[in-house]
Amino acid sequence: MGIKVGLLGLGTVGAGTAAILLSPLGRHPLLAEVKLAWVGVRSLTKPRQVNLPPEILTTDLVQIVRSPEVDIVIEVLGGIEPARSLVLEAIAHGKHIITANKALIARHGDEIYTAANHAGVYVMLEAAVAGGIPIIQPLKQTLGVNRIHTITGIINGTTNYILTRMREEGGDFGDILAEAQKLGYAEADPTADVDGLDAADKISILASLGFGGRIKLEDVYCEGIRSITKTDIAYAEQLGFVIKLLAIASRDKAHPDQFPPRLSVRVHPTLIPQDHPLASINGVYNAVSVVGEPLGQVVFEGPGAGAGATASSVVADLLQVLAVLKIQVAWSQAGVPDTGLGSKISLLHPLLSCAHQEYCEISTMEELETRFYTRFITSDQPGVIGKLGTIFGNHQVSIESIVQKDIHDKDTREAAAEIVVVTHNVAEGNFRAAIEEIRQLPTVQSISSMIRVLEQ
Ligand code: HSE
Questions:
Q1: CATH for the 136-303 domain, from 3.40.50.970, 3.40.630.30, 3.90.1150.10, 3.30.360.10
Q2: Homologous superfamily of domain range 368-453
Q3: How many helices (H) and strands (E) does the chain have?
């Protein structure tokens, strides 16, 4: 059997994918049955990282997705258009889709999966989240018997790299970002990464698969790392924490039987205890922790980006679809009759396809029960800590630890106090109400930072 593949895009991931397909020896034997039929590119003359027969390169991407010679389309263009139109056109022509495009799936997954289920084709996306780490198929298959409680990930390598270097070198965000851009670890426009948008796309996909309902991206709370300072990183260290940009999806414990479950889905910098498994994930590495019942916790870690790592996930999806198609071909060659069990959708392998259509209800951030780290600059006067304590108490905020350091106002040189508070679990709405009242105190000069602490 020869399965013909059309590859859309020959950038970093596309070239990595082609490189694997061109050297199948020593990999799974099924890969030898794949033929790279077409590769769609923007320019035929651009130098490439991989040697391909020139006759399979074309700038006509629409022709690839309509071609009767193509069984599976791999979309590694990135971005929304023309990727969305090409994927929908390929589905309409009965092609299975493999994509690394988290932005596309997070925004248009409902449209794409509805079309795919109707057409009876697969849309596979292992490469869309956490690069080379196998997390999509485990969530769909091996972990599927568990009632998932939380999915917590470091799923953006750029921000993890920046935070790691800020911690190791005591550097400022702006300086480290500029250097990361120079070294190619951060994009010229770093917005999607440093503002948490890339991680929000990815956690919406993981939550949807782990909890069995669709997620509206606009419901995902998103806060990036621009406001993290070396001072907060140093205080966190003293208190036994590290600061990571976490993407978290958790089941609302107050509604345990709702299906699809009510969730909290969010991206924000978080203080995590130094002995937490995610605390030691450094540099551009990614990791995802899944906690479920009855399994408990599993942690997946590895390279979250890069040509080879992401291509490994792309081709893993190809292998899965290939295996199913091989069985279908064998059945039809053996003359297995149509059982008449229903529409084409019932022919899709239920552990590879994604049939859920209901949306998960997402709780508000005010409802979130979490701990907080916060840093105040206040006048150095008697009674300041007492007033903070009273206001926190009035709003049911319980203090877990408090540290005070004498400093001098950098402009006036007057004595001031830097006060760092870590709270116990509290409803975020209550904490914010307390902070608003504290902000009005004449002795409080500024509230320099408020960072969530991983809940106990
Ligand atoms: N920009 C992403 C990151 C890699 O920094 O992790 C691609 O998903």
A1: 3.30.360.10
A2: ACT domain (3.30.70.260)
A3: 13, 17
